[in-house]
Amino acid sequence: MSYDPDEHTSSSFTYISQMGVWWIVLVVAVLTQTASAAVREYHWEVEYKYWSPDCKEGAVMTVNGEFPGPTIKAFAGDTIVVNLTNKLTTEGLVIHWHGIRQFGSPWADGAAGVTQCAINPGETFTYNFTVEKPGTHFYHGHYGMQRSAGLYGSLIVDVAKGKSERLRYDGEFNLLLSDWWHEAIPSQELGLSSKPMRWIGEAQSILINGRGQFNCSLAAQFSNNTSLPMCTFKEGDQCAPQILHVEPNKTYRIRLSSTTALASLNLAVQGHKLVVVEADGNYITPFTTDDIDIYSGESYSVLLTTDQDPSQNYYISVGVRGRKPNTTQALTILNYVTAPASKLPSSPPPVTPRWDDFERSKNFSKKIFSAMGSPSPPKKYRKRLILLNTQNLIDGYTKWAINNVSLVTPATPYLGSVKYNLKLGFNRKSPPRSYRMDYDIMNPPPFPNTTTGNGIYVFPFNVTVDVIIQNANVLKGIVSEIHPWHLHGHDFWVLGYGDGKFKPGIDEKTYNLKNPPLRNTAILYPYGWTAIRFVTDNPGVWFFHCHIEPHLHMGMGVVFAEGLNRIGKVPDEALGCGLTKQFLMNRNRN
Amino acid sequence: MSYDPDEHTSSSFTYISQMGVWWIVLVVAVLTQTASAAVREYHWEVEYKYWSPDCKEGAVMTVNGEFPGPTIKAFAGDTIVVNLTNKLTTEGLVIHWHGIRQFGSPWADGAAGVTQCAINPGETFTYNFTVEKPGTHFYHGHYGMQRSAGLYGSLIVDVAKGKSERLRYDGEFNLLLSDWWHEAIPSQELGLSSKPMRWIGEAQSILINGRGQFNCSLAAQFSNNTSLPMCTFKEGDQCAPQILHVEPNKTYRIRLSSTTALASLNLAVQGHKLVVVEADGNYITPFTTDDIDIYSGESYSVLLTTDQDPSQNYYISVGVRGRKPNTTQALTILNYVTAPASKLPSSPPPVTPRWDDFERSKNFSKKIFSAMGSPSPPKKYRKRLILLNTQNLIDGYTKWAINNVSLVTPATPYLGSVKYNLKLGFNRKSPPRSYRMDYDIMNPPPFPNTTTGNGIYVFPFNVTVDVIIQNANVLKGIVSEIHPWHLHGHDFWVLGYGDGKFKPGIDEKTYNLKNPPLRNTAILYPYGWTAIRFVTDNPGVWFFHCHIEPHLHMGMGVVFAEGLNRIGKVPDEALGCGLTKQFLMNRNRN
């Protein structure tokens, strides 16, 4: 066994020693002999700290004083236990384990208002779940816009101990990508909720593993004189980039994930090809690319072979696509250890592809197929939703709506309402399953006024569900925005993408039913549609929402529920708010 | 009966009409005949709004979209019901009814962590309490530093209907004084909790009824050229001052209260005498003054007779004392209706007395005696605490401590812990009842390191308690700060003030036992002591703390408990956090 201090087997010594160390040692020894899966227990405290993610100081939400939060590294089959203590002053808190399906533990999904109540200041809540398969994942806050405040970190699951990884590589790196604003999050939330709405604008910086550079560039020597100056950070500064040190003629796995609030990104490594091998925790058919698009909520692994001049270093660039960029490329360095780490690359960093070349973007998405041997989707669906994405107005407040309903999550978490049949917890009428087929997606909404709602879509257990997400024009002008839709509790197959309105009975014929990729995030392109399919095999209540943080804040999500009579025990600690509080306080009364 | 829409009797129509209007009308009619006390029910929603309290826009915590929150006006004996809905995104919320003793309703005192759990976002909590005697009061947030965020308003109780007010006046005004910072509250809280501590500095503006002017002056015409320019606000702007319109040769009652985060204030009305008649909701022996000191947590009524030239207007000035000021005087206008409201006064506003003339400050406090016929204090105390106020360090974090303990309120409200005997809710060991008598208050603490704690002082029911608060030097330099100490659940008699260290057995002889004022806030002057006395006649758990918001945030408070076996029913809704949540969820289990 490993003596990784994060493993429960070793940390037990610290916490249970008074109870009799020798007895524990015996039990642990026996367990270690009989099971390869470990329990990895963490004690985390979340609080604000002053931090300088992009060399400018601000308030950042930290885990155990770190930003980004500590990386969880586990093996498939391991159990993760996180004792999460809220050290904030007045704010509640949850953490969502993005990409983890939470089979049997829907209460641990960490979506406030959906699967649990927010953890109150001063309280500790214990997440306990199994990571059942290998993959590149992350975790993040899922209450208000706390993800944007910096509450995120990586969650990496390797193949189970004793099993072999099918990918071949000599080393690995983990790059968690995010975007960063100088405006504090409560202020951003207020602006978005105001009449008229005040938009947050484009990010000040892109961060790579929580590090970026505002108003300066690592590649200033290639800039013309109107451009950015050289950065002046010192080694060891919080905004100094993490340099990737590599040996020549090796293959590295680079794990990428994006927890941006808004930005769609493109990453390239100067002079190097990338072989894309994993998407959202699922192996895909490898393909080679010069650069990779990555949207908020997505993760990838790419293999990079260090086959270039080993006396040089190379830029890694991350730029904005999909929206007109107003944020400088983030840069770091791929350092061949045969060259001095301080040596700057000899040519400018890769240019990010044009932001509005959506054909290029779509073509990238369409290159992704599941790996051979991956499960195929059922051939037919039993239930189908067609979800129109629109920007709307409610009493002059700007909102996003799905089939004309802008989601407001209730004070009582759905999981509690359905578990205990609290009929007033949310509106039991399902929201519309489709939209008026005469709706013109190419124009602004003719009747922009809409309503809020908290109804959900309830599915039978173990049926196949198709969801078509349908894009449309926004309130003003001729723009349709990109929306990365993320589903909790599931991987889904991405059956296809199309332009314009989805044509039922016709567009199904274009589906890829042979090797569609399994993912947890799918991209909806401007004026187009995206079709996904999944099986309702995971009893629980699952959020499905645009992963752009301000869009979700403005109502852009729906909620799915399935297998409701198969939901197991939900710890009382997950349910101490709204109607569940009253119910649990009174349940044993006569 | 009145048809004030705030009264329950009339608002009942709205809320219960479906149940049978006529039956209700009958009941109401009967009640109105037989009881003069009303139930005043309010529905309040708290959320952030953009607001410009001092002409500069920021995020302000509003009640029903107003800042300051709505004024509650009631008659003695009325019952106040406030249904408080938290519309914030991720923050909890409570409201404290400052000056209301909450006899029989200790759970409604609104001190988070002491008498209740914070109200979660999306939830509604109902406060229900009686205002048993007339007085000038206010309400404010009491969780984190939400008071500083703007969560406050006035609570005015008139003499019971049918009884006559002993003061004679022709009209009244209400001036709620506060101070205002441009730095957002979460950022202030972070700075105070950081190592090294970042102090919030002096306020940007003083506000009169939520209105102030930053970087300009209503009296610019009297300034020399290095001074502030004339203000450019327009009538109707959120920062335009409220002008007091008066008729000549009348007497007005001006109700003053201060909910400042930090500032000690002095108010004067140009050319007019003030007759001070009420302090903290208790009649006092009237005395005449040119200006009045008012500290955070205090309230006063003053009578002003409009006996000056009725063709002129007069400045009302509010300036900072007690700390070296770096905040412009707040100004508004006393307008004789016989003069145009827009006419500026013909001479400069009153000059605020020197900030560090503490003898003047103490002399003002010492002019306050209870009104004839007020209850006298018991002649002897049964229990006594001597509470040393010091600034300290804990692991390099700056804190305030009382007898070397810096208070950290627990996640479980004390009232719940004592009501249900939850032994782990807080440390059952009482904090020290005094301090080392060789401690030198004139020098910085020789051993600045201290500890945090959450123990409380438990008193028997119906005994007389003396508390001596003792000031001392701060960590650095030769300064001792002013601390206005506020007690919840009680009025207390202020028996005396003294310089230097309180000398037991000697200084008691200086006590005023004849006509000491009854108050809920007492001032502790630099390097001095203040003695208060109260009777533990109100079963409950009561906060006693420095009313300076950042000082409380840094631990400057203690908690008293009394009559614990006489505490009545506490609504479950007040207790849904920490150990009370677990307890209430499991109490009926076998």
UniProtKB/TrEMBL annotation, chains A, B:
GO CC list: extracellular region; plasmodesma
Record has Protease as a keyword: no
InterPro entries: Cu-oxidase-like_N, Cu-oxidase_2nd, Cu-oxidase_C, Cu-oxidase_fam, Cu_oxidase_CS, Cu_oxidase_Cu_BS, CuRO_3_AAO, L-ascorbate_oxidase_pln
Pathway annotation: Cofactor degradation; L-ascorbate degradation
Keyword Lyase: no
TM annotation in the entry: 20-39
Tree of life domain: Eukaryota
Domain Plastocyanin-like: from-to ranges: 46-158, 173-337, 452-562
Top-level EC class: oxidoreductase
GO biological process: negative regulation of defense response to virus; response to hydrogen peroxide; response to virus
Function comment: Ascorbate oxidase involved in a redox system involving ascorbic acid (AsA). The oxidation of AsA represses responses to high salinity and oxidative stress conditions such as vegetative growth and seed production reductions. Negative regulator of defense responses toward incompatible Turnip mosaic virus (TuMV strain UK1) by preventing jasmonic acid (JA)- dependent accumulation of ascorbic acid (AsA, AS) and dehydroascobic acid (DHA).
Protein name, UniProt field: L-ascorbate oxidase
Natural source organism: Arabidopsis suecica
